[in-house]
Amino acid sequence: MSSYADRLAALRQQLKEDRLDGFVVPLTDEHMSEYVGSYAQRLAWLTGFKGSAGSAVVLPEQAAIFTDGRYTIQVRQQVSPTEWSYQSVPETSISQWLKEHAPQGAKIGYDPWLHTADWVKQATAQLAAKGAELVAVKRNPIDAVWADRPEPSKARLIVQPEELTGQSSADKRHGMADWLAKEGADAAVLAALDSIAWTFNVRGADVTHTPVALAYAVAHSDGTADLFVEGEKVGDDVRAHLGNGVRLHERDEFETFLRSLAGKLVAVDPERSVAAISQALEEGGARILSRRDPAVLPKAVKNKVEIAGHQAAQARDGAAVSRFLKWVEEEAPNGGIDEMIAQDKLLGFREELGGLKDLSFDTISAFGPNGALPHYKGTAESNLPFTTGTLYLVDSGGQYQDGTTDITRTVPIGEPTAEMIDRFTRVLQGHIAIATALFPKGTRGSQLDSFARRPLWEAGVDYAHGTGHGVGAFLAVHEGPQRIAPVGSSQSGGDEPLQAGMIISNEPGYYKPNEYGIRIENLVLVVEKNVAGAEKEMLGFETLTYVPIEKKLIDVAMLTDRELDWLNDYHAKVLALIGPQLSWEDKAWLERQCAALSR
Known about the structure:
single chain; alpha+beta; Creatine Amidinohydrolase, Chain A, domain 1; Creatine Amidinohydrolase; aminopeptidase
């Protein structure tokens, strides 16, 4: 179809044929994934929105798109205000909006493979107040009008060896069996793709930038499991790796299998499993135990082997990013560079390392006003050339078989303004506050979030995203359950207590609409800390990312002695770790970047 308006019109016509008065369009897949394969990009196809989080509702005369504060500017740039109204989350929600706007007695369709059971329950209650009804569809109406919709990936699974996982799949499954025994349950459904990849020590290439395979699994109380994945995706090496304890089935047999579990008590994650799973279990006579996926927490708490692999990946990745920053400093003033040229150059530096499997997400290569969009995704239309007098923000990461990286740096192109230096220094102070935080066991990320914001709050400014997200081990770059985010924010997740072994990002920022953006991001590891005289067991962070922080943007006079000491110590470590990997010219640049600052 030639335009997004045509697509919306076609969907409305399909809804009319299906006898529906509306339809809900989330940005997810059958596994409640954050990043999804091209076949599941229904929201982008319908609206033009290219962000990584959002949803929409279509009624006969109205349509609304829902995004959080990260996408306030982006959604207005990409989605037509003529066809769509913009709704801000969490100030409102789909169910609240439907309660206000759905016609009396309306039938609102939803795809039960794209929503959780809790969402269905909540939306059903909200609509009931209007005499309206939520209706599960057997065929997604967008799929009916999306003529050239891509097919799901056919990529084959690969084995993630035990020397990189630190634990066998059998041991992980027996750990789940012990958990099921304590819960008195017979089985647990695993629907999240990264949980399945972690549990079975396999990886895939079905989702761009996330090495997972489209699959479902059911883990049993005897340590065995049933894995549902297309047979053509499983080679003899994977079959041998899985062994006799894992029974293989075609992916499309999953729903039927669920209906066969009559009388069983089955654990289902209410956050990570779609409503169709619960519906199939209930229709088959199984009893449902609402519990978090048993892979989530063990996956988040990295073992020594995973930590060592991540450190090795970070060291290599840091050398590539350092070489890139040197290139930007030398070449940007000459002209002829734009956002896309820069991101391709960064990819080239990473590829020269060897071992790069993929990027960990689409690189945010954002110059000037595009940097004010926290999750900017460049296109040919939005691509900006580098000019002097503003900032360049680059947020990027790599997928290596021994670790997943994520780093953001902000650099000036030409001379920065006094305001840019002030804001950057405040972001740095917030970053240091997280990096140096000490806290007792049991502390949640929400309790630390304001540490990063205080220097910005003191200037009357803030940022509209979380301060930190979990990171996987050659898995999802955004991994729960740990977060550093305000309570009640769309990024707060389950507000999990932090534990030693968790990897999390430290990324405060500042964004001035239509002018520039600033973010400083390193990954950190939660570690135990010995504190003299402590009456509680204490935790803190160990920095994992080592790449220079731009000194031209720092007002040293604003830093405390402790903050200045941290910065100089950090740069000394950067030089020691990254320097030996660089040629003499690159190392000479690194030495200048890492030279100690003084007052």
